[in-house]
Structure of Trafficking protein particle complex subunit 6B:
Amino acid sequence: MLLCFFIQSGGTLIQEMCYGTDHQVKTEGKSLKKEKECSHHIEGLDQGKHIRILESMGFRVGQGLIERLTKESPSFKDDLDVVKFICKDFWTIIFKKQIDNLRTNHQGTYVLQDNQFLLLTQLSCTKQYLEEAPKFLAYTCGLIKGGLSNVGINCTVSAEVPIMPTCKFQIMINRT
């Protein structure tokens, strides 16, 4: 059994699972419907909501992961140290490689570039997939934001794909 997707719909958790070619949607342990093909879309939800759900899932995972990784580490001196930790240790745990390039304006904006982003390497380089690529980055934006949130950094994370499979994550730290 491969777990495909979790969503919240009208206060009820819906769990979508794939069983080979059979497809089943369950809610609170009861089967709602069964289809022949596995589709990762549930009718009635717009694309923006899917992206927010994926980002939210990544946020929670990022919080937990950074907590485990920094449990016995000394505290960070500043924001740059935290972002360097994200680029080296955090990224290596998740994607088995470090970020290829880190740039900053030293005023709270950081750009992390991964030239062979794992989630994009299997996609075609055509215009169609270049337009669809941000959907594949929502979870990772959530991972970064959740990790930074758990060490006390409130930020906004966005992603862009200039050319496949390169992607850039922009972190803008919200100063209060």
